[in-house]
Specification:
- It is a single chain.
- This protein has about 475 residues and is α+β, with helices and mostly antiparallel strands.
- It has four domains: about 1-95; about 115-180, no CATH class; about 185-265, no CATH class; about 275-464, no CATH class.
- About 75% of the residues lie in helices and about 5% in strands.
- It has helices at about 1-25, 30-55, 60-110, 110-130, 145-155, 160-180, 235-245, 260-265, 270-315, 325-335, 340, 345-365, 365-400, 405-464; strands at about 180-190, 195-205, 210, 215-220, 225.
- It has a five-stranded mixed beta barrel.
- A hairpin with a 4-residue loop joins β4 (about 215-220) and β5 (about 225).
- α9 (about 270-315) packs parallel to α14 (about 405-464), α10 (about 325-335) packs antiparallel against α12 (about 345-365) and α13 runs antiparallel to α14 (about 405-464).
- The protein is elongated.
- Residues about 1-25 have low confidence and may be disordered.
Length: about 475
């Protein structure tokens, strides 16, 4: 009796195990729990029913039921042993067939061919993963992506099938063909805000992709195209628009030979505003000095040009002297005073020199400030360089390592300060030379005309 009950319990436990194993295919844990509870209730009810029937039977009937169960168990054990033997025989036959297949493959030279195909597939899988051409050729439903397929094929151990070999060849050929084409297709493009919008994309081989006149970046991890947060300069965007609107022929375009790496670095370049901000206080001081010197240069340049024009007009007609120009004022200081003409030549020369010197400060105005700015620019830049190096050494001391990323801020500040200092000193040096040349030319005209008029006056006095 106890043996019969244990048999029924083993059968119920096996049924429960099979039922639970099948229940794992359900969608949710709630449905799994419900199914297990129902199966358990059914098994308990069936066990109680069989137990009641067994207990209600006579001893002779119980012996007969026990004998039938044992006979059924022995029959199932015999069948299980027979199937196990057959499984072993089949396993041996499969191994023999595989051995024969390997031998035939080695005889035909296919092992080397398959090895080369796997090696090529592994090398190509990395290239295809990084190629933006993948966005144009998505995988069909139920099949892996082309780079995933090549990677699985490369690490596979089984003999390749003709279908697999054909797909390897097809993916290689399609990548080669598409690499030399300029294609236009529609695909989802991730916007800077994170949303994906369907857009028309123009692709130049595996190098560059544009959409609506803007350049796109390919993300291999997501296998999607996204807009650069910062776009290249306007001339680049204009070339992208011309390419998208072209219907044929030769069109000038931007091609990144590094497949997007150079373009990514280019758009990440800081603007002039960001570079100036990196210079901090020293940079702003240098810019203020340069702006003040530049404004002074423009004002004095306009003044000297106007003075030079007025002096040239006066030179054309020395009979009608005017006070609206330095030459006229100098000559009137001599001719306008009859007593000065009659005085001694030395006194007259001194009076004329006085009139000329009265005009010189206006002609040489701001030149000393420009020379000071030329000298101060590099010195201020040197201060910024020293401050930047102090920041660099401080970051190295605090972090305990010489990581270039930690030193970039200090070195950047040092370099930008030097650039700004030289950037204002060199142009102001030429500007000061221009003002000096113009002022000297006007002063030379004043000296020549004043000395000439003095000599003419002295000559007339001697003749008289």
């Amino acid at each position: 009796m106890s043996k019969f009950r244990n048999l029924f319990r083993c059968a119920a436990l096996a049924a429960l195990t099979v039922s639970v194993s099948g229940a794992y295919a359900q969608d949710t844990l709630d449905s799994l729990l419900t199914e297990v509870r129902d199966v358990r209730a059914d098994e308990i009810a069936a066990f109680e029913k069989r137990s009641a029937e067994f207990n209600a039977a006579s001893p002779a009937a119980q012996k007969k039921m026990l004998a039938d169960a044992q006979a059924k168990r022995d029959a199932l054990a015999t069948t299980s042993k027979s199937l196990a033997n057959q499984f072993s025989v089949n396993e041996i036959q499969i191994n023999d067939v595989r051995k024969q297949l390997r031998e035939k493959a080695q005889t035909l030279g296919l092992t080397e061919v398959f090895g080369i195909s796997r090696q090529v597939a592994g090398d190509t899988a990395t290239t295809l993963r990084q190629s933006l051409i993948t966005t144009q050729f998505p995988s069909t439903p139920g099949q892996p992506e082309r780079d995933d397929f090549l990677r699985e094929y490369a690490v596979g151990q089984a003999t390749p099938t003709p279908v697999e070999l054909e797909r390897v060849w097809f993916e290689l050929q399609r990548e080669i063909t598409a690499s030399g084409q300029v294609a236009k297709y529609t695909v989802d493009v991730v916007q800077p805000g994170g949303e994906a919008l369907s857009a028309e994309v123009v692709r130049i081989g595996p190098f560059t992709a544009t959409s609506n006149g803007q350049f796109l970046d390919y993300l291999p991890s997501l296998k999607t195209l996204n807009l650069f947060p910062r776009q290249p300069p306007e001339e680049f965007l204009g070339l992208a628009e011309d390419l998208e609107s072209a219907s044929g022929g030769y069109v000038q375009a931007v091609v990144d030979s590094a497949r997007g790496v150079l373009l990514s670095l280019y758009v990440e370049r800081p603007t002039w505003g960001q570079r100036i901000e990196l210079g901090e206080e020293i940079g702003y001081i240098i810019l203020v000095v340069g702006f003040a010197a530049g404004l002074a240069f423009l004002l004095q340049l306009i003044y000297l040009v106007m003075v030079r024009l007025s002096v040239n007009r006066q030179l054309k007609d020395l009979t009608k002297l005017s006070r609206d120009n330095p030459l006229g004022r100098v000559l009137l200081a001599f001719k306008g005073d009859p007593n000065l003409i009659e005085q001694d030549a030395d006194i007259a020369e001194l009076r004329i020199s006085e009139a000329v010197l009265r005009e010189v400060p206006k002609l040489e105005r701001f030149q000393s400030f420009l020379r000071l700015s030329v000298a101060a620019g590099p010195l201020l830049g040197l201060i910024g360089t020293v401050v930047g190096m102090i920041i660099t050494f401080q970051s190295i001391t605090e972090s305990g390592s010489s990581d270039p990323k930690l030193m970039a801020t200090g070195i950047g500040q040092a370099m930008i300060a030097t650039v700004l200092g030289l950037g204002i000193a060199i142009p102001l040096l030429f500007a000061n030379a221009v003002l000096n040349s113009l002022s000297r030319s006007v002063s030379q005209v004043l000296d020549e005309q004043a000395v000439g008029m003095l000599a003419e006056s002295i000559e007339k006095q001697r003749r008289a």
